[in-house]
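QA checklist item 7 of 12: single-chain prediction sanity check.
[x] sequence parsed
[x] length recorded as 147
[x] structure emitted
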Amino acid sequence: MSIKYCRDELRTQVLAFTKGKDLKKDWVIEKNVEYNGKKYDNVSGTKCDSESGCWRMGYELYPSEEIDGYKFIHYTVLHGVVKVNAEINLNKKLTCMGGFYNTFMTGMQYMSPKQMCDDYLQPLLKEKSDGLITKDNEFTFKYLIVM
């Protein structure tokens, strides 16, 4: 049931957040990772100003031709460096197709769709009563420039 919950909740949040936007163009929904009160680009390997401190997750959700669906990537900071915490593959209906979770001890580990939803995505989506993907949570929408 968690796969259905995650799909339905993601669809509801994404559709509400992108209302009135042309989703046929290249786009990204994102929230930059934050470390010690400063925002950093969601790019794995970006060095932060300090090696210890408080962090907030960064997120990216965007269409992916590679998987014929969407990628939902979560970023964190470890020892002052931005790292990928999880990479979730979603089909065109935003149903979880599994993905990878970074244990940081053994690296990126594959998680089945059920395991990803049960152990990672569902608790994340339920964390905020008004939804995860909102302007109040500092998410932004932007069109990508294709060259």
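[x] summary fact logged: The longest strand covers residues 69-78.
[ ] second reviewer sign-off
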